[in-house]
Amino acid sequence: MTPPSKVVHVSAHYPPYLGGLEKVVQSLASYRDGLGLPVEVLTSQLAAHAGDAAFVQRLGSFHIAHTTVMPSLVPRLLRLKGDAVVHLHVSQAYTSEAVYLAGLVKKVPYVAHMHIDVGPSGTAGFLLQAYKPLVLGPVLRGAEVVVVFTEEQRRVLGSKYRLDPRRIEVIPNGVETPFFSTHQRVRPSRPRLLFVGRLAVQKNVHLLLHALDGISEQFETVLVGDGELEGELKALAQRLQLENVRFHGRADGAALIDLFRQADLFVLPSEREGMPLVLLEAMAMGLPTVATDIAGNRDIVIDGKNGRLVPLNDAAAMRRALLELAADEALYRRMSESARTSAERYTWDAVGRDFEEVYARVATGDYLRAAATAA
After folding, report:
1. What would the pLDDT profile of 277-326 be if each residue is shown by its tens digit?
2. CATH 3.40.50.2000 fits 7-174+347-374, yes or no
């Protein structure tokens, strides 16, 4: 199969904006660029900086109702020539509809990459409940192929959005090479807990703070990230009189890798995930993890083997899991080794090759026929 003339990634945000989705876009685009193949990223001006790669195109944008709008996105997509393939990173409204419209008008084929199926929240949550079946459903059904992270997501999303199962591909996330560590970890007397992510509703950091209530002095806790709940979370930590809890702010690149290296345990209290990249990165570093038992987390964490899974919003259960790993050195060491071994299955080279096969099939104009031929 012949690769497409160009792959165009469409994402509302891009690094240095902090988020797993944004890092996935960067990693996939960099992989293709490293192969010497044409690639472009169309994204917003949010967090734009001088360090952008040449393939990153920042479009004029504005923010309204938690949605980033790029007025010139549709015209840019309609100007695509040849057998270009669009890689849509589904995360919010507008970008999805823009790609769908270009597909209808110009027959631009696209891959819909479902990073997370966000649930309704806030006073306007009812709008999302209407948006999904009425708008997102047709967007996904209009894609040549929908990419999900796990078989569980494949079953759930296929049923929810009435997708042809033959057009759903399971491709996991990957881990950058610098995160893989062979360093033998030894549990210290006061373990260092690490959380990395947006300080937003989805990440559910309130749960971690409540879990630390009464035991915070036994750990050094570092919360890496920023977001709209930062002030509220700092106030909660103060109200609970938590000790040794530090709000680090955002970090990426070498600084983030150093924070992973300095940590002893990783904590992910999220209420909803796709396949959390930070969780894979923590495991590649050999960090045992305490995470909520939700889709996405439980596809990576095997309870009792490479970490602990605790019920969602059960602060007492999370507290017990943290104390268990802090007290049992043999258990800690076994989980550390198992975490590192588990992460070895996830590399961006492997993920990149899988996507190149998908792009080539999409570029043929008949994804199902190309997939059947390849099989």
Report:
1. 999 999 999 999 999 999 889 989 999 999 999 999 999 999 999 999 99
2. yes
Confidence of residue 126 (pLDDT cuts 50, 70, 90): very low
For the chain, helix, strand, coil in percent to 5 are: 40, 20, 40
Superfamily designation of domain 177-343: Glycogen Phosphorylase B; (3.40.50.2000)
The CA distance from 324 to 191, in Å, is: 12
Q: CB under 8 Å, gap of 24 or more: what pairs does 245-254 form?
A: 245/209, 245/212, 245/216, 245/221, 246/220, 246/221, 246/222, 247/223, 248/222, 248/223, 248/224, 249/224, 249/225, 250/16, 250/18, 250/224, 250/225, 250/226, 251/196, 251/224, 252/15, 252/16, 252/18
Show the tokens assigned to 74.
Answer: 């549709």
DSSP 119-179: PP-STTHHHHHHHIIIIIHHHHHTSSEEEESSHHHHHHHHHHTT--GGGEEE----B-GGG
Whole-angstrom distance, CA of residue 109 vs CA of residue 106: 9
Question: Closest Cα to residue 28, out of 374, 299, 347?
Answer: 347
CA distance 46 to 54: 17
List Cβ<8 Å contacts ≥24 apart for 19-22: 19/198, 20/115, 20/173, 20/197, 20/274, 20/276, 20/277, 20/278, 21/89, 21/91, 21/115, 21/116, 21/274
Please tell me the distance from the alpha carbon of residue 48 to that of residue 221, in angstroms, as a whole number: 30
Model pTM score: 0.83
Quick one: which H or E segment has residue 316? Answer: helix 315-327
Q: Where in the chain is the domain with CATH 3.40.50.2000?
A: 7-174+347-374, 177-343
pLDDT for 138-147, tens place per residue?
A: 999 999 999 9
355's enclosing H/E stretch is: helix 348-363
Q: What sign has the CA pseudo-torsion 286, 343, 320, 216?
A: positive
Residue 202: DSSP 8-state = G
What dihedral angle (degrees, nearest 10) is formed by the CA atoms of 314, 315, 318, 322?
Answer: -170
